[in-house]
Amino acid sequence: MCWALERGLRQEGYQVLTATRGKEGLELIRKETPSLVILDLKMPEMDGLEVLVRAKDLLPKLPVIMITAHGTIDTAIEAMKLGATDYITKPFDLDELKLVVKQALMVSQLQEEVTFLRSELSKKYGRIIGNSQAIQDVCTLVEKVADSNATVLITGESGTGKEVTALSIHQLSSRRDKPFVPINCAALPESLLESELFGHEKGAFTGAVARKLGRFELANHGTLFLDEITEMPLSMQVKLLRVLQEKQFERVGGTESIKVDVRVIAATNRDPIECIRKGTFREDLYYRLNVLPIHLPPLRERTEDIPLLVMHFLQKFNPSQEQLISPEAMGLLTSYHWPGNIRELQNVIERAVILSQGQEIKPHHLPKEIQKTDTGKGEAGQGLIINFPDEGISFEEVEKELIIKALEKSNGNQTRAAQLLGITRSALLYRAQKYQIKL
Fold it and tell me: What is the C-alpha separation between 325 and 334, in angstroms, rounded?
């Protein structure tokens, strides 16, 4: 049997190894890491089921095709429960076995591609990084909403990580093994946006030479991420609202209603309430999307996370070696106001890694606008000037006054006030409580 199968499969271009005993076969699996195993159920010394279990311990994703006699179908089904990919009964046609092998290898290859693409997706979007209370609150909320099917509306300035947050929700949900499909509502004109979302039938419009599936169909049983939702034209907002309510739609140029099971996550860098007031965003759509709201704070309100983000991006852009950054450069990064948020920080670090050529990143490797950041030392860099009276001064009164002034200058923003004082936000809160300063 081994000789016949080896000869027949080699004719198909496969490299084939054979073994007539279970232990011998397991040793080959351990040494050679095959792409697929054909395993007889009945063998001396060790039966096929035991070999299957041990082979799966060695290589959990190894495709195994069981060969079984006609009267042992129940055992073959048991093998499937133990992880076998397929089974074939004796007597069998060699062409039948070749087809089963081809299909099993194809499925295995597709599974590997899916695993690789998911890994690349995570690399592309990254993950939520930070130890600040603000970002920890976001992480807690993400974990709570992940397994719900309700829609989520993520708000936050451009570059704060809305798409990363949406992907995190998807990956923590029961839909993690299904597609995550993003679309930017601001990137397409109305005519193309409808086709992208709902698909179209052949001949629906000039250039529609074939049926096309829309993002809703592609995301079936998975997650659809609608970025910049407030930029969607009003006429499309009506159609989107209908799909969210009825869970079905028609392709452009079609009449058949298509039902879908899609979890929708939307995001915007604008204030939705202000858009409603201006008449550019439907109020009923807002309330349909805003079932589970998540707001992402700007980077200037979580400056304690900047060193952690910097180290993450250094590792990302120079993984082959340990990239260092000088304390002076890190000080400038933590003092900068970051209008472009995390996206801007990422670009700055990528640029600095290239310019430093693997050496320590110093202030002159940073953009000019960051080098000019006011670190609080004044124009002459001589530090704070205080008129010290002869009779002395109350240190606690000075500290209390500094905290009050910092809060006034930051318009009550605690993170920014702490940054102005050169202390952590938790230290600021402790001192404010100590001096009974109302926050």
Answer: 13
